[in-house]
Specification:
alpha+beta; two-stranded antiparallel sheet; 15% strand; globular; disordered N terminus
Length: 218
């Protein structure tokens, strides 16, 4: 996490770890963070209070429980999310705007589709050695996406797999042109079209904290 220049270097390793946990797992209670990170609840609170003073984290509304007192959950603020890298965001948005205004929307879509074709070809070359081993192919795709900055992971479901992307390093560009996201979904669908169905279950631009894709064997 220290590699992310947007996060102040003065933060301790434990504070970086807490932020990464909130990024990848969503809002958490002090008790849960304490168990996950092997720290005392007092220590976690001290770190959270410091991060809150720097506007990296904040508390959610009280979570209702069937039993016991309501629990306060901690989450990343906009500044906290923004401290993770958005690759060349300003330049990407400017280029999209220039292409849209000079070439028109249809030509911009063609360029995005061309990028998607290259992306698909690259993924397929990398996954070729895994044959029909669907689980290994999905795991390798998560590795490739993580290398691209998406902080991806795979979770096993009763009826398939969930490819989770905890961060979007192209958020600004995607927000400016949503067809970038649509093209990436199509890439995933085409990658597994012979043996699995791919659908998006969580979408950052629709208010979710992450993007996630369900991959279900045909």
């Amino acid at each position: 996490l220290q590699q992310y220049a947007g996060i102040e270097m003065e933060l301790s390793k434990s504070q970086h770890t807490i932020m990464l946990r909130l990024k990848t797992r969503g809002p958490q209670s002090v008790k849960i963070l304490s168990k996950q990170l092997g720290m005392t609840t007092m220590g976690v609170r001290q770190h959270l209070n410091y991060l809150e003073s720097r506007d990296y984290v904040g508390q959610t509304r009280e979570a209702k429980q069937t039993r016991g007192r309501p629990v306060h959950l901690w989450k990343l603020t906009d500044k906290g999310h923004g401290s993770f890298p958005d690759t060349h965001s300003s330049m990407a948005v400017e280029l999209i705007d220039v292409l849209r205004s000079s070439l028109g929307g249809a030509e911009l879509e063609r360029i995005i589709d061309s990028r998607a074709e290259q992306q698909l070809a690259g993924y397929l070359r990398d996954l070729a050695g895994f044959g029909e081993d669907l689980q290994s192919r999905i795991a390798r795709l998560a590795e490739l996406r993580s290398e691209e900055g998406f902080m991806a992971e795979v979770r096993l479901l009763p009826d398939g797999w969930l490819l989770i992307e905890n961060h979007c390093p192209i958020y600004s560009a995607a927000n400016s042109c949503r067809n970038i996201c649509d093209s990436e979904l199509r890439v995933f669908q085409q990658m597994f079209q012979d043996n699995a169905e791919v659908s998006r279950t969580d979408y950052l631009l629709d208010g979710a904290r992450r993007c996630a894709y369900k991959i279900q064997r045909l």
